[in-house]
Amino acid sequence: MMVWSARRIVEAAGIRCMIRNEFAGGALGLLSPLDTWPELWVLDERHAERAIKTLAESTAVDAEKPEWNCPHCAETNAGSFETCWNCGR
Ligand SMILES: [Zn+2]
User: Fold this and answer.
1) Angle at CA 78, nearest 5°, toward 60 and 51?
2) pTM for this entry
3) Domain ranges of the chain
């Protein structure tokens, strides 16, 4: 989920990117876990530093959001979470 969220943030900054290994999870057990993790790739290397900076700024902003309690299961979630990590609502 983190990679898809990162792609949304990077694309919103006007940087073209793609996810590699998007469907490699099905090969888990045949390949090493590291070879099946999804990866975010910036298509133009010249924009890589700006993409990293954009993600770092996005994370810093999210870290400032207060924790919240899920109204469904009452679990405490980090402010950066848009959905409850426990129940997914
Ligand atoms: Zn919940």
Assistant:
1) 30
2) 0.59
3) 2-62
